[in-house]
Amino acid sequence: MTTKTLSLMLMLTASLITASCQSAADADSSFSYNDERFADLQMLRYRVDGFDQLTLRQKTLIYYLSEAALSGRDILWDQNGRYNLRIRRLLEAVYTNYGDSRQSANFKAFSVYLKRVWFANGIHHHYGSDKFQPGFDEEFLRSAIELYVPESELPLAEGQTVDEMMAELFPIIFDPTVMPKRTNQADGADLVLTSAANYYGEGVTQAEAEQFYLAMKEAAPDPAHPVMFGMNSRLVKEDGQLRERVWRSGGLYGPAIDRIIYWLEQARGVTESDRQAAVIDKLIEFYRTGDLHTFDAYSILWVEDTDGDVDFTNGFTESYGDPLGMKASWEGYANFKDQAATERTRKLSANAQWFEDHSPVDSRFKKENCRGITAKVIVAAMLGGDLYPSTAIGINLPNSNWVRAEHGSKSVTIGNLTDAYNKAARGNGFQDEFVVDAATRQLIDTYGDVCDDLHTDLHECLGHGSGKLLPGVDPDSLKAYGSAIEEARADLFGLYYIADPKLHELGLTPTADAYQSQYYTYMMNGLLTQLVRIEQGASIEEAHMRNRAMIAHWVLDHATQQATTQGTKPAVELVKRGGKTYVRVNDYPALRTLFGQLLAEVQRVKSEGDFAGARTLIETYGVKVDSTLHAEVLERYRRLDLAPYKGFINPEYVVTRDADGNITDVQVRYGEAYDHQMLRYSRDYATLPLVNE
Ligand code: ZN
User: Fold this and answer.
1) Per-residue pLDDT, 14
2) What distance in angstroms lies between residue 453's CA and the mean position of ligand 1's atoms?
3) How far is CA 484 from CA 474, 478, 490, 540, 547, in A?
4) Using 50, 70 and 90 to split pLDDT, how confident is the model at 477?
5) CB 459 within 8 A of CB 522
6) Does the pLDDT at position 663 exceed 90?
7) Cα of 34 to ligand 1 centre, how many Å?
8) Cis omega (within 30 of 0) on the bond before 171?
């Protein structure tokens, strides 16, 4: 399972996700997080900070695993649609050979189309799964092919003429009624027949596929430990019979899998431990045999190997692209532990009892023995397959339910990608639009990232683990309000403590006032900016959003009441300027007191299982949306014109070898252009034939 992100979601959900903190020594002022923008996409870059501090053996291991992560690219293209590899070849041949003006409207539209196809690993949108409609016409493509492209570079089928190829492929590209959806989820349709994804052969119906796998499940010898049926094959009909064409060495996608195995074997020679070597051996065995029991055995070895710094995913992993949710798209990535972030969470965990003892909640609700959790934050070193260019920021694997239940799962947040999203969002106009004044913007610029990280750490490592239920209280007594209350508890624990001198003492906050940036963005998010994720007229439903709205509105309401009774300025208020609404904080220490009071109340509600109390808090402050304010925020956001989807250009690893061919150094290099990277991958990682039957 993966956590994906949309535009600005990170700014809006700052408390959800851990980001890595980049040390000043690593920072390179010439590095640009934002790259080109086209259609609804913004290309970004990520840094691999900490790579230079790894040992040569670890760097070499990451290099080999990165090559393995790139070697399966063609598999995903073919999984996403049976014509994708041929269309990619055709488009790239036109792109590189085109001899007329590259400034013409047609060529520009053609370039945008190709860049979208590259991004989506096929001709359908990576997220919405609708087929792209080209902004150029057939005549442009026809004449470009005839005038400029050598026949040897065209994806001609056996014995096919250029005209026949165009007659075959043009409807796939241009006709909106042909293969309109990659993955159709529309209720009532035959989801297999109407999806362009290449997981089922021609003529296979949904009913046939479902029956085929139902029979397989019923015949399984050990129903408590089922394999992931159908995960690594295309289901085809041959002579009226259904058969699986398994993705393995010697089978379907064999040439790509052999290349992956080659790089895994290299990695096998430089592992950090025997356990890690055993993991790779088992994965190679799975790729050779295609046996799903071997895959489960591999998953168990992988999930239990947590010692090393370097880790990876490589294989058929997520099934979001199969309309029936069984067949897994190929993905791969290489990563290593984020030492700074891990050290941060270790410090918090080591002091878990101190935080519990000093929290403002009633002592009856406190834990006597409090243990913190050390979060696993990793640095992505290379993204491949279904993680590239659109990627996940959090990954939780394996997906097999019984393996998870009996052996656990690895849950990671990818710190350097979150960090890149945050850095790229700087200067996009969002803060200028919504933050009340220059001084507050400066505060957020300086301390925003480090405090976001810290708040997430406090939330995850301490907040969820703090407090206890009174004896006899049913843990489910808050029912539908349970998740929002639980998130509020963790958020409030983080908000209360991020302002505590203890954090400064532990060296976790840069100054005693840095917390103010988190207080401001939290209130702004809860009162205003998270509303951009809700449609006009709707109310707030998602638990994390309800929690944030509840906390922000409760605090605003109580600050207003205090001001009225005391005749003073409120600690926080909404102000209007030029028809626009802003959050203004007048008294940060008073805000902390209010967060503490609400934490005490929320913990009481949780500990006592007070359903009515939970309902009052959430329904009064966390659900309803002021429709006038909502319309204003939506319009201000729309005018910023930010790209809704983002993806990453990978770094390159440059290897130095001695006279005997041994690797003596690996360096990470940034700056490759998006089109250059895509064309290079199509050339150097062309691991499959254009047609895979
Ligand atoms: Zn949480």
Assistant:
1) 34
2) 14
3) 17, 10, 10, 11, 5
4) very high
5) no
6) yes
7) 29
8) no
460 CA from centroid of ligand 1 (Å): 6
For ligand 1, the distance from its centroid to the CA atom of residue 249, given in whole angstroms, is 42
Predicted TM-score (pTM) above 0.70? yes
pLDDT level of residue 1 (50, 70, 90 thresholds): low
**Span from the CA of 484 to the centroid of ligand 1 (angstroms):** 9
Distance CA 264, CA 281 (A): 8
The Å distance, Cα 308 to ligand 1 centre, comes to: 27
Q: How many angstroms does the Cα of residue 647 sit away from the middle of ligand 1?
A: 25
In 3D space, the residue among 403, 407, 400, 412 whose CA is nearest the CA of residue 374 turns out to be 412
* Residue 686 tokens, joined: 């062309």
Q: Which helix (H) or strand (E) holds 357?
A: helix 352-358
* CB-based contact 190:206 (threshold 8 Å): yes
**In the prediction, which pLDDT does 85 show?**
98
Per-residue pLDDT at 363 exceeds 50? yes
pLDDT digits (tens, 9 = 90+) for 207-244: 999 999 999 999 998 989 999 999 999 999 999 999 99
pLDDT exceeds 50 at position 24: no
465 CA distance to ligand 1 centroid (A)?
10
pLDDT digits (tens, 9 = 90+) for 27-68: 455 799 999 999 999 999 999 999 999 999 999 999 999 999
Instruction: Using the mean position of ligand 1's atoms as its centre, give its distance from the Cα of residue 614 in Å.
Output: 17
- C-alpha of residue 498 to centroid of ligand 1, in Å: 16
111 Cα to the center of ligand 1, angstroms? 42
Tell me, in angstroms, the distance from the centre of ligand 1 to residue 464's CA: 7
Q: How confident is the model at residue 149 (pLDDT cuts 50, 70, 90)?
A: very high
| d(CA 529, ligand 1 centre) in Å | 20
User: What are the tokens at 144?
Assistant: 């470009």
Report the separation in Å between the CA atom of 487 and the middle of ligand 1, taken as the mean of its atom positions. Answer: 5
Count of CB atoms situated within 10 Å of the CB of 167 = 11
336: Cβ–Cβ under 8 A, 6 or more apart, which residues?
50, 51, 54, 58, 62, 309, 310, 311, 378, 379, 381
